[in-house]
């Protein structure tokens, strides 16, 4: 039986879950705009273990949401995952943030789901997935305009989900687009992806693994008061 701890910190949702053979047995999360991951993450890990009646030595692997997403959030999650893997001597699994978001949507044959995370201005992080949740187009950072994703929408329903869907709703007019901005990355949706990687030995190098930032970190300086 594979017992995996999943950590999701790529956005405002600080989320922790534990799965046994792909089934979620504990979930702790809080989607707060304050990005309180540094205070909450380790507390949630301990609470999830207690809820599942498990302890750290029972874990077989740690799965981390690898991005794209918040620079600070990803750093906090990856640092915690690495520390646990080192101390417990267990493997590290990375789960693409957008792929786990796609799993929140039931997609029929010939339909597509495009998770979109809000970035700066009119930009989003996006990836296109088919009904089997396989990549139909790679992850990109892109500016949304009236032509975005139009090559996928002819004759098919295309679900745009995530914090960037609101931007898309205001620009994309085709009736086959379905928008849902309420979808947020959550550790509960990482289990099936993490289990498949665990069973096939798709592990990360704990020493050298880095989050998938997609874009360089830009420090936002506060404006000086006159």
Structure description:
There is one protein chain. Helix content is 25%, strand content 28%. With 226 residues, it is α/β, with parallel strands linked by helices. The strands form two sheets. Strands 3-2-1-4-5 form a five-stranded mixed β-sheet, with helices on both faces. A five-stranded mixed β-sheet has the order 8-7-6-9-10. The longest helix is centred in the middle third of the chain and has 18 residues, at 71-88. It is globular, with a radius of gyration of 18 Å. Residues 217-226 have low confidence and may be disordered.
* Rg over alpha carbons: 18 Å
Give the termini separation: 62 Å
Helix content: 25-40%
Mean pLDDT figure? 93
* Structural class category: alpha/beta
Number of strands: 10
The strand line-up of the biggest sheet is 3-2-1-4-5
The main pleated sheet reads as: 5 strands, mixed
Percent of residues in β-strands: 25-35%
Tell me, what's the shape? globular
Number of alpha- plus pi-helical segments: 6
Spell out the helices and strands N to C.
EEEHEHEHEEEHEHEH
- What low-confidence regions span 5 or more consecutive residues with pLDDT below 50? 217-226
What key attributes describe this structure?
single chain; 226 residues; alpha/beta; 5-stranded mixed beta sheet; 6 helices; 10 strands; globular; disordered C terminus
Summarize this entry quickly.
The protein has 226 residues and is α/β, with parallel strands linked by helices. The protein has helices at residues 37-51, 71-88, 97-102, 150-153, 165-169, 191-199, and strands at 3-8, 13-20, 23-31, 61-65, 92-95, 112-118, 123-129, 135-143, 158-161, 177-180.
């Amino acid at each position: 039986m594979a017992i995996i701890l999943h950590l999701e910190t790529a956005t405002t949702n600080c989320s922790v879950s534990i799965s046994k053979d792909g089934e979620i047995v504990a979930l702790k999360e809080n989607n707060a705009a304050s990005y309180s991951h540094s205070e909450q993450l380790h507390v949630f890990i301990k609470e999830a273990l207690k809820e599942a009646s498990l302890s750290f030595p029972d874990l077989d692997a740690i799965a981390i949401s690898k991005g794209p997403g918040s620079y600070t959030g990803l750093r906090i999650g990856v640092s915690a995952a690495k520390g646990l893997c080192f101390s417990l001597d267990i493997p590290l699994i990375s789960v693409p943030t957008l792929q786990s978001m796609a799993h929140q949507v039931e997609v029929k044959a010939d339909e597509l789901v495009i998770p979109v995370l809000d970035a700066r201005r009119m930009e989003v992080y996006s990836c296109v997935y088919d009904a089997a949740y396989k990549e139909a187009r790679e992850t990109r950072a892109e500016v949304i305009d009236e032509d975005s994703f139009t090559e996928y929408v002819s004759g098919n329903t295309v679900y745009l989900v995530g914090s960037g869907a609101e931007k898309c709703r205001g620009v994309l007019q085709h009736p086959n687009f379905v928008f849902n901005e309420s979808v947020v990355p959550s550790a509960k949706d990482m289990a099936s992806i993490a289990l498949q990687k665990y069973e096939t030995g798709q592990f990360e190098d704990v020493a050298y693994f880095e989050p998938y930032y997609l874009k360089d970190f830009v420090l936002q300086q506060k404006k000086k008061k006159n």
